[in-house]
Amino acid sequence: MKNKKTLSNWLTTKYLLIIRNEENLSEKSPFSFTYAKVVVFFFAILTVLLILSLYLSTTIMKQWFDPRHSTLEANKKLLQLSIKIDSLTYEVERKQLFINNFKSILMEEFDGVNTLETRDPQITETRSGIARDELLPIDSLIRKEFEETGEEYLGLNTQYSQEIQEVFFFSPIAGIVSGPFDLSKDHFGIDIVAKTDEPVKSIADGSVIIADWTQDSGYVITIQHRNNLISVYKHNAALLKKVGNFVSAGEIIAIIGNTGDLTTGPHLHFEIWYNGGPVNPEDFVSF
Asked: Quick check: is 89 in a domain?
């Protein structure tokens, strides 16, 4: 009982702390306190410091206090990269499947070699003496594939669906039609003569599925549009788009040129394919 009173008295006994001037001993700042107030004050400070330390260790200073932080951050970044890689892989596979399906329509493979592999124009020039039947350009493949079915498409120009007839197409280039569409001569498009270095434009929104060099047609770019429409632009001097690029109607995709063996001067050979068959571009576009 005596100890309890002694502890209670020790905590509640008031003390006076007096600060005096050293020179004249005058009082400056007297403070009244008890040990109970001192204990409560220090306990409150320790509590605040503890809470502040816990907050900092889980937020700003987490990377220094939490040994799991670096591992968690690495796992988080790895998960994000995995998701991005999966998305990119899916998109690439979709585009590659689409391109392969289109290639299977326009061409066939010889001895397992893809006939659309890129050819260097300089290498092509050094091999200009090779016989025409040894070359595997896009033109020859299209002709071979449709040479027995050309008559089937002669009536297509008057049998387009209403949906196609209502679509507005941009003119790929301003010029004069020098070579008309003629299936009987295996001429699956039209030839347009224009000014030198005139830009070639896409006739409608679509995705580039071929941007390549061929022996016969030089630089060729092909665009897939809606409603099973495909536009082909040949003999370009330069291509400004790559496979997989999305282009808008009227957007510049190439520069008119005179590349390839089957050309007699600067012009654009322009084709439109509808549901797998060639159609007369002049039925769609006004030149």
From this structure: no
